[in-house]
Design a protein that fits this description.
By secondary structure, this protein is an alpha+beta fold. The chain contains eight helices and 17 strands. Helix 2 runs parallel beside helix 7.
Length: 299
């Protein structure tokens, strides 16, 4: 097999511990150059000032992006009370500081109100498109941008550190949550203002920091050609999803886009896996059968 065709067959996940200072796109570009595989993409942007778990899909696995991107996220967020920012973080224009006179009990009680299904308004300085143009561009051009609130899910919100004027919280939330907006809202509700000064993603879907490799280690392994040791099989990208194990006959049917019977009580979506443990398709229950929604293994 030629080197080119071998690269064409590489498919999987690289979980990177993104350092502060790089964009998510920067990391993807480094991986494309290091692997010499052009087909790569991340599954959830981390701002340059944020660090932590960045899931990068390689090769045919990029077709999983819509599913992996929608997975829940977890963060440690450092919030400074007593001053707000027009960008809701330390990148923007910071207001004058005010005295912060709140107790730990007050903060903990307030955080309880953010757990569950809540409405959240994205920051004016965000990539949300307004008539085809990112909101942050319109805001920088002096336009008034009023973004619609959206429904998000906060599964848990816990105070980890209380060292005024800063607090550190652990937040487990749905995809699309703006932690910057959360920081701003907390400050407004406390009446002292607040903005985000530090953010570390500790989990993205199935993957945690334990699964992540540092960019420096990855760069070294690109040089020696050992980077594939960090490649996680595509089937693990949705490792917390149920799996449908296919026998040889079912494999042939599913890879050709045909339905197979589902067990009684099966619902929603699942990973269809062949006997070698490889991801064949994403399937969804429809009228008691597994309907292939997206097929990956066609050879």
């Amino acid at each position: 097999m030629s080197q080119g065709s071998m690269k064409d067959n590489v498919s999987g996940v690289l979980v990177v511990d993104k350092p502060v200072g790089l964009t998510s796109h920067d990391v993807v570009q480094i991986i494309r150059r290091g692997t010499d595989i052009r087909r790569a993409g991340h599954t959830g942007t981390l701002d340059p000032r944020a660090s932590g778990v960045l899931v990068v899909l390689i090769g045919p696995a990029v077709r999983l992006s819509e599913f992996v991107s929608a997975e829940n996220k977890r963060y440690h967020a450092t919030i400074r009370l007593g001053s707000s920012s027009d960008t809701y973080d330390s990148e923007g224009v910071i207001s004058d500081e005010v005295e912060v006179n709140v107790s730990q009990a007050e903060v903990e009680e307030l955080l309880k109100g953010y757990v569950g299904e809540i409405e959240q308004r994205p920051p004016a300085y965000s990539a949300v498109k307004v008539q085809g143009k990112p909101a942050y561009e319109r805001t920088r051009d002096g336009e008034e941008v009023d973004l619609e609130a959206r429904i998000i899910q906060v599964h848990s919100l816990e105070l980890l550190e209380f060292a005024l004027p800063e607090i550190v919280v652990d937040i487990h939330c749905s995809s699309g949550t703006y932690v910057r907006s959360l920081a701003n809202d907390i400050g407004e509700e406390l009446g002292v203002g607040a903005h985000l000064v530090g953010l570390r993603r500790t989990r993205s879907g199935h993957f945690t920091l334990r699964d992540a490799v540092s960019l420096r280690r990855l760069a070294d392994d690109f040089e020696t050609g050992n980077w594939a040791q960090h490649l996680i099989p595509a089937a693990e990208a949705l490792g917390d999803w149920p799996a449908v194990e296919l026998d040889a006959d079912e494999f042939e049917k599913v890879r050709n886009g045909n339905r197979i019977p589902a067990k009684e009580g099966a619902a929603g979506m699942a990973r269809a896996i062949n006997e070698q443990g490889e991801l064949v398709a994403i399937v969804e229950v429809d009228e008691g059968e597994w309907q292939p929604r997206k097929v990956f293994f066609t050879t």
